[in-house]
Amino acid sequence: MKSHDWDLIPPSPEWEPDQRKGVLAPSIEKLIPANSETVPLTPYHELDFRAVSLQEAINSRRSRRNYSDQAVSRDELSFLLWATQGVHRINDDRSLSWRTAPSGGNRHPFETYLIVNNVEGIRRGVHWYLALSHSLLYLHGVNGDFNKVITDACAGQAFASKAAVIFAWTTIPYRAEWRYSLLAHKDIAIEAGHICQNLYLACEAIKAATCALTGYEQKLVDEIIGVDGEDEYTVYLAPVGKMPAKHST
Length: 249
Known about the structure:
With 249 residues, the chain is of the alpha+beta class. It has a domain at 69-242: NADH Oxidase (3-Layer(aba) Sandwich). The protein is built from six helices and nine strands. The strands form two sheets. A seven-stranded antiparallel β-sheet has the order 1-6-5-4-7-9-8, with helices on both faces. Strands 2-3 form a two-stranded antiparallel sheet. The longest helix has 22 residues, at 184-205. The mean pLDDT is 93.
């Protein structure tokens, strides 16, 4: 549904959204804790990777589960984050944002968390991507044996624990529900695919591999990244690592 078509739909008392009731729009980013120390990432215009045509990226895109021991560089991580949730602009009251992936009504009901294992210059553990400032906020470490914790959280898929970094996308449903009510959940499912496809294509540009996961233990993943599982919960995972010399699926 195009966002400008929404006002053409007759109101329904069963699912009238808060926007039509005059409720102020929720923020497009969660509140950042006071005195937080963030790590700035490389701006997109300063990145310089090999030229890959869109045709080439689409043709070579695969789900890959084998990763080398090579670290992902900070610039490469910056590029992947920009490609998936980079912000072009926001409106004056910070209720809407225009990003590298599309979202109905520019609501963007997602947050990106990273479970970092082997990224140059980035502390191992869980980080939160602050899209509006293109920076990272370290949250906490992963308690216990890293490989076992990640394997268990990913429903026994041990390859995920070998990745350099795992992208974990959560949704805050109300950001979209405010405008679309019950219809928001369809949009959330569709838009998660937009974001992850951007990751797949961006990985091709830096010779990295990824494999999207919907098979994971919901409660365990929510606990690892530190969300409540109700107002915010995980919807998609994507381990990323550098391709081995002879890469395979």
